[in-house]
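TA notes, week 10

Several of you asked for a full example with nothing omitted. So below is the full record: structure tokens for the whole chain, then the designed sequence directly under it. When grading your own attempts, check the secondary structure regions first.
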């Protein structure tokens, strides 16, 4: 069988031989691809956005590119790709871009069976985008925001627009692949006739090879893997960090992205309102010496950053099943996560970690303190999380499940 994937990033099997820039946000797709290709019973073609037209085979995978800026021409471009690739089934990864809607329409016209894979759901995310931010911050403009006409309020509007494309995509779908109670409920609300297939994801390979050790971590340190926009909840975490610093003056916070406290002139001009707000909060809570920005991290560097942390925190206002939480659990890093979306399908409160209401920084601070103060609790969470994650993210099991789903989408077998 031949599967064609529509992705928003390039696979390593393609990027490395062609010398293309690696996409640090699509590493989990590499794991899924490796699992699918084991055994030789499946062939894979991948369609991804790229500014140049590329066609060919690299790393044993066919590849096709499209211009994501050419919205009007996208359906016709996809029809041509489908005719050339001749897949038995198409898997559309994600629903948040127009390309998903265009590919779904192209598949229907070409009569090729397809499944829509749920990652996040931007229509739902739009409702949570402001994440308890003050209104003056939501509506504020920096120089960058003014030039781009893109402040926090407008970003939420863009999410809502993507949600319209998303709704159209889901209405066209006869098959949907998801992994949490939350995304299943959202799919049911959008298209009660769609057939829902459960399949967990496979994470980046490096995270299966390492194990967190309390004796090797940096004590009283916290890692947050994303902090660049409101729904990731970093502003709410900083309120919790301000409380923690009173008891742990050596508190260390690590997060990805640019240093917002010491920007050069160009960085100041490019800085959006949210990043500016983060700098203001760091000063308000006296955290200037407690924060370290790591920049963008590749797979191995990200893995090392997790292992260095005493606690991993996911403070988002909304998520489906955050891969960051999964990566932390797979490594055994003690985890505290906001109780949003499908998090409870990954982590049981009090067993593999702790969950809290996303808009309760005091509770977050208390839960981090519990782990800082109790090594036995940290070790118990670590071991339990690794066992749970080993089952959820079992690459062989998930690859076999995905193959079952593709056969079901093609009409060759049943899948529940």
């Amino acid at each position: 069988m031949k599967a064609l994937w529509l992705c928003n990033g390039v696979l390593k099997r393609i990027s490395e031989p062609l010398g293309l820039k690696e996409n640090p946000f699509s590493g989990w797709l590499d794991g899924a691809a490796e699992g699918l290709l084991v055994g030789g019973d499946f062939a894979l073609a991948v369609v991804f956005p790229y500014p140049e037209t590329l066609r060919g085979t690299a790393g044993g995978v066919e590849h096709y590119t499209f211009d994501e800026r050419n919205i009007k021409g996208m359906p016709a471009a996809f029809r041509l790709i489908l005719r050339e690739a001749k897949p038995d089934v198409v898997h559309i990864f994600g629903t948040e871009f127009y390309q998903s809607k265009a590919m779904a329409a192209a598949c229907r016209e070409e009569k090729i069976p397809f499944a829509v894979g749920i990652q996040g759901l931007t229509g739902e995310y739009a409702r949570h985008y402001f994440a308890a931010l003050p209104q003056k911050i939501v509506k504020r403009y920096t120089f960058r925001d003014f030039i781009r006409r893109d402040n926090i309020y407008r970003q939420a509007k863009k999410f809502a627009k993507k949600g319209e494309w998303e709704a159209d995509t889901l209405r066209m779908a006869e098959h949907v692949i998801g992994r949490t109670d939350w995304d299943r409920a959202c799919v049911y609300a959008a298209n009660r006739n769609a057939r829902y297939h459960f399949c967990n994801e496979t994470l980046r390979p490096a995270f299966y090879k390492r194990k967190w050790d309390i004796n090797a971590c940096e004590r009283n340190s916290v890692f947050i893997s994303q902090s660049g926009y409101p729904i990731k909840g970093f502003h709410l975490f900083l309120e919790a960090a301000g409380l923690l610093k009173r008891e742990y003056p050596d508190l260390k916070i690590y997060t990805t992205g640019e240093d917002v406290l010491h920007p050069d002139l160009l960085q100041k001009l490019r800085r959006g309102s949210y990043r500016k707000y983060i700098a203001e909060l760091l000063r308000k809570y006296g955290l200037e010496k407690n924060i370290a920005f790591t920049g963008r991290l590749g797979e191995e560097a990200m893995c090392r950053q997790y292992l260095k942390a005493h606690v991993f925190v996911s403070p988002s206002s909304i998520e489906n099943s955050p891969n960051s939480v999964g990566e932390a659990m797979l490594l055994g890093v003690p985890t505290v996560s906001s109780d949003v979306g499908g998090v409870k399908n990954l982590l049981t409160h009090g067993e593999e970690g702790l969950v809290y209401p996303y808009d309760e920084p005091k509770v977050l601070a208390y839960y981090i303190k519990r782990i800082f103060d109790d090594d036995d609790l940290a070790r118990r969470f670590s071991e339990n999380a690794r066992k749970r994650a080993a089952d959820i993210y079992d690459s062989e099991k998930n690859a076999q499940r995905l193959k079952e789903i593709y056969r079901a989408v093609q009409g060759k077998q049943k899948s529940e």
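The two ends are 20 Å apart (CA to CA). Use that as a sanity check on your answer.
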